[in-house]
Amino acid sequence: MYLNCHSYHSLRYGTISLETLVEQARAMNITTLGLTDINTVTGIYDFTKVCQKAGIKPIVGMEIRNDNRLLYVTLAKRRSGIGEICRLLTAHKCEGVELPKVGPAFQEVITIYPISNVPEQLKENEYIGIRPDQLNILVRPEWGKWINTMVILQSVTVSNKAEHNLHRILRAIDCNVILSKLTEEDFCRVDETMKPLEELLPIYRQYPQIIANTVKVQEICCFEFDYSTPKNKKHYTRNKEDDIKLLKGLAYAGLKKRYGENHPQAHERVERELKVIDELGFSGYFLITWDIIRYSNSLGFMHIGRGSGANSIIAYCLGITDICPLELDLYFERFLNLNRKTPPDFDIDWSWQERDTILQYIFDRYGKEHVAFCGTNVEFKYRSIFREVGKVFGLPKEELDTLATSPIDQHDDNSVVKLVHKYGKMLEKYPNQRSMHSCGILISEEPITNYTALEMPPKGFSIVQFDMHIAEDIGFEKFDILSQRGIGHINDTVKLIRKNRGITLDIRDTSLSKDEPVCNDYLSRGKTIGCFYIESPAMRGLLRRLKCDNYRTLVAASSIIRPGVAKSGMMKEYIFRHNYPDKFEYFHEVFKEHLGDTYGIMVYQEDVIKIAMYFGGLSAADGDILRRAMSGKGRSLSALQKVKDNFFDSCERKGHPEALSREVYRQIESFAGYSFCKAHSASYAVESYQSLYLKVYYPLEFMVAVINNMGGFYRTEVYVHEARMSGANILNPCVNKSEYETTIYSEDVYLGFMHLQSLEAKIAQLIPHERDCNGEYLSLEDFIRRIPIGIEGVQILIFIGAFRFTGKSKNELLVQARLLLVNFKPENRNLTLLQEPAKEYKLPVLERSPFEDAFDEIELLGFPISCSPFDLLKTKYRGIVMARDLVHVHKREVKMLAYLISRKHVPTKRGTMYFGTWVDANGDYFDTAHFPDCLSRYPFQGGGCYLLLGIVEVDYHFPTMTITKMAKMPFIPDPRYSHDKEREFDTHRNLKEDVSLTHRDPYPQEHEIGLPRHRM
């Protein structure tokens, strides 16, 4: 009887979760239930599963609305009916086709019209839905004739009256109005709840035909879905046989290229993998990925294949990845095995500048009817809840800001705020809006609208209405097409090297950098600013603690730095064993033999599989089941228990004492959830080495590329500093030399116009474009004649020194600009300026402080170029020791003067602490630790220079200064405002700092890890 139920997937309308909806039905002995969310099929697959578990027959469809006006309810008679409904909505969402007021002539869909939208004539499979409160109209002759085509329309939107209030709040959020401004048309009736059938059916007892029609519809509709069969495009060629034939040919060609003519181990691995791939029917998936890579290579794009796909030698031979699985002992079973029920996926990165080209190729090559991005449900989060709900109750912006940014215990205790809390808590975890998955692409065999309606976000690539978890459940393997700035750094550096030095570099040749001695020296000293994944303070500290000077150690470092591994305590234990290999014993011979590279520690997910295999005697496939189950990715507790029992039985057969087996299992259990995929780490390490190679041998081009890709971990200022430390002559933007982006001429680096924060982007792009078309600018007058710019824009360029080629002072240029542009109308630009040359005026020479330029730069760029921040200090004091000396003053108190680069927030049991990164007056980096008691007395006060007092601790070759006192040092007053004392220190606030937040728990101490250092 319930053909029209809404869940909270009816965004900002429904209030009931799918599970609650089905629970309510089961509690009322309802045996058939229809889900018809508004303009979406997001919930139908999960709903079907939940219904089947509850013994309820699921009916699925969609309620079609246009601007919140109900047009009709659609129900799929069978699976193909969902495709018809989805294509109707897709045409509206993606092509702008108006939703028809009367439903189309569906083949496998039942359409139910509300009383408010009854067509003149009903087609086959069309009905009119009548609510209990509307039955009294049937006494009228004009309605009585429709009784034989009517069904019960008891819509379900809320569970009770309290939820109806929540529904109204959701509607107010959606309509962007305060609660009192809602009209009755904006929200549902208060009685749209589920009632027991013994309460609902008697209302219709005078109209048995309506009840019979409703039962008939329930019987006709049957949504049966096969969750077990793959839904991806099946074949790259015409059939499975041709697919495996092509894949074999490509694999053996790649084998020869990668390993030469005679490599038995690689040949055997290729054979084994091909057999599994063929058996599981994944040849097409590999070939489609290869096809995408082939296209990318044809354009000269660089890509990084990473993730568990790098465990495959076939992927390596096809050029999808650049990681040799034999070199690092990577297990194919971690990616694909006969026991694995869930599909694999390849993670492939491109430069953020090139990714859209790859996406366009995929959509064009395989057809927009078969390709779409995964969707994702963006939930109401802490800040958005309080902002949105507070706005509904009419709170002003200042109060909304306070609610969103301060802890709940600091909120006001008035009645309105209590209501915000009450309904805000009810909204937690509710889906708020649908968005695009960052990288997951689906390529389907059938038209993708057979499974879902498509939506078109601003990005321009269609998305499905469900997320990656539902996609996986219903049988889709996604292709992860990612972008990252690290590849942009590498790509652009190679282009700049060719342009600036005339050198063509094949950076894809990974042998270039892996074992290069100078690169390894930089690595061991943490000289990695700008390099992908290894530039953060934490990573540079880890590299120094490990004295990391080779590829394998970098692979391990890339894994143990991950929050999960560090949280498990494995990072600390690894550092200890790496530095003191003679101060521990291997727990068991198997750990020495198979985990020798990581000192007997399960650092990688692959290590869990190794121990399960070589100690426990399980197969690699069962080892992967164990790993997935413990990492939370395995959904079946019974499957985990089965593998666990198998593990202990196998250990007993191998003769291991029970206590030993239990300790090994405890370690697996402790680390499996935290460990990181080794293939993933190896992919990161290769890219890190590529970046580092460029930084070592082509530092200026590399830093310019980092700056142009908008950096990485740090702000632009840090990369400009690094370029200067590498020998660059850093120059302010110039209208005759600079581009939109930063550019390099030999050792001269001209900052791009993009860095001028107040300059319009279109003007910043037009300046170099006009110069390229019509030659250099001859004067300020010539520039103003050619560029449609106002006095504010010209002043920005004058203050930054962009017209220094004229030889005139900033003061002269300002006067000239104002004379040229005063009362000037853009439409008269050419006419006025060409009539007569500008008059030259003899101006008095005005004295300028040497620091005025620096303050101009701070105001316009955010940092000084013409001098160092230290030069702007009132004091000449520079501290007792410099950063390079810290490693020699262990346990000593030192005083230092430093410029703040970044700080990282870390919660502890005693309160907030920070780790700081600084540069000294020589430009060298060092790190500090600030504990809660110190911070309460000596807090950070924004960007700038500080005087630091603290104790130096050298931890495994890496010095950290634990701060006891700290004071921000005053800069000289801004000389540009010497006449205006109130503004003398305004510009100082433009100095920035990088602040990163983390909400992780503190890392465990050594005694909390519980990893034995002695043989058991």
UniProtKB/TrEMBL annotation:
Ranges for domain Polymerase/histidinol phosphatase N-terminal: 1-68
GO molecular function: 3'-5' exonuclease activity; DNA-directed DNA polymerase activity
The UniProt record lists the keyword Aminoacyl-tRNA synthetase: no
EC annotation from Swiss-Prot or TrEMBL: 2.7.7.7
Swiss-Prot/TrEMBL keywords: DNA replication, DNA-directed DNA polymerase, Nucleotidyltransferase, Transferase
Catalytically driven reaction(s): DNA(n) + a 2'-deoxyribonucleoside 5'-triphosphate = DNA(n+1) + diphosphate
Entry annotated with the keyword Ribonucleoprotein: no
A Gene Ontology biological process term: DNA replication
Alphabetized NCBIfam families for the sequence: polc
PANTHER family, sorted: DNA POLYMERASE III SUBUNIT ALPHA
Protein name: DNA-directed DNA polymerase
Organism expressing this protein natively: Sphingobacterium phlebotomi
